[in-house]
Write a structure and sequence with these properties.
By secondary structure, this protein is α/β, with parallel strands linked by helices. The protein contains ten helices and eight strands.
């Protein structure tokens, strides 16, 4: 009887040990699973932060129309081709007929992401859209990506197409190129429209500048979830150059610039268009307008004091959706349509 009790106690002790071992193993497995989830969550958050960085830098456009999915009217290009310009084969499209307008896309975008803006403008004018260096169908070449070089590319494109003078309109990166085209080649520009772009780097909010400084090849993988990459991957001559584009864009975004002297010399009628919740500081918008000669005095009862500059601030919009807003084209069209002022 005593021996049997001992046997049961020993068996019970052995059972207790095995049960404890199972509990420890189960707990260890749970800890391993939890740790795995924590690491996955951290990785996802890092990717989310990287994508947020790109959004803050103004280089991801997430609205349907900017992802190449036009919501309304469409425009079939009358002509497409490649212009040999400074070593580039610069892709271009020609839409509509009438007064020529060069239309330039934003950073990491392309002509395919001009949305409803292109067909709306092409109803009453000839629109020439082009893919900037390393964007869309224009393959990159071995040169730094600079605003000045891309502005010279636009001048070369106009010469190639036999266009002596044109209006030029750009958004974000494209607006910077349009602005520099006007500064460097004033004889080519009839009217200028700048959409959501400062004339100097400090015009951006500090947090936007901080985000821009982070742009580089590390964003290449997370940004493959973006509409920008979706378009790039099926249109670029070398889709594998996506990290190269981000590297060059990052270097460009970190470059300091101040074009105030050049802006002050612009003679072409110029319209600035911003959002009231833009990534550009509102005080900078006013400074930009004043550099162009606007906002310095009362326009007068007869309008004789109005300068050649125009400033439009569209309500309820941001840097990231202003170009897809239905309000944009009706805002700029009257400015483009009005006859040029008489030369004094």
């Amino acid at each position: 009887m005593f021996e049997r009790k001992i046997s049961k106690l020993e068996w019970g002790g052995q059972e207790s040990k095995e049960s404890g071992a199972r509990r420890v193993a189960k707990h260890a497995n749970k800890m391993s699973h939890d740790m795995k989830n924590i690491l996955i969550n951290r990785s996802q958050k890092r990717w989310q932060r990287r994508i947020a960085t790109a959004i803050a830098a103004g280089i991801i456009l997430t609205t349907p129309s900017t992802a190449g999915e036009k919501s309304g009217a469409s425009s079939i290009a009358l002509r497409t081709g490649y212009a040999p310009v400074d070593g580039l084969n610069l892709y271009y499209e020609v839409h509509g007929s009438g007064e020529p307008l060069i239309l330039l896309h934003g950073g990491l975008a392309s002509t395919e992401m001009l949305g409803d803006v292109l067909p709306a403008l092409a109803k009453t004018r000839q629109v020439i859209a082009t893919d900037l260096q390393a964007h869309g169908r224009t393959a990159d070449i071995d040169r730094p990506m600079t605003i000045e070089a891309m502005a010279d590319d636009i001048a070369g494109l106009m010469k190639y197409l036999g266009i002596p003078k044109a209006d030029i309109m750009g958004y974000s990166l494209g607006a910077a190129v349009a602005l520099q085209t006007t500064i460097r080649h004033p004889e080519l520009v009839r009217k200028l429209v700048v959409v959501s772009e400062p004339y100097k780097r400090e015009g951006w909010y500090p947090d936007v500048l901080a985000a821009m400084s982070q742009v580089g090849p590390s964003l290449a993988e997370p940004m493959k979830q973006s509409p920008n990459y979706k378009v790039y991957s099926h249109s670029a001559p070398r889709p594998q150059d996506w990290p190269v584009l981000l590297t060059k864009m990052g270097a460009l975004l970190r470059q300091p610039y101040d074009w105030s002297k050049g802006v002050a010399l612009i003679k072409a009628p110029t319209m600035l268009v911003f959002a009231d919740a833009d990534a550009v500081r509102p005080e900078h918008m006013i400074e930009f307008f004043q550099l162009l000669g606007g906002g310095k005095k009362d326009g007068g009862l007869d309008g004789s004091g109005i300068s050649n500059a125009r400033l439009a601030i569209l309500p309820g919009l941001t840097h990231y959706n202003i170009f897809s807003s239905p309000a944009l084209v009706p805002t700029v069209t009257p400015f483009l349509d009005v006859p040029m002022p008489e030369t004094k």
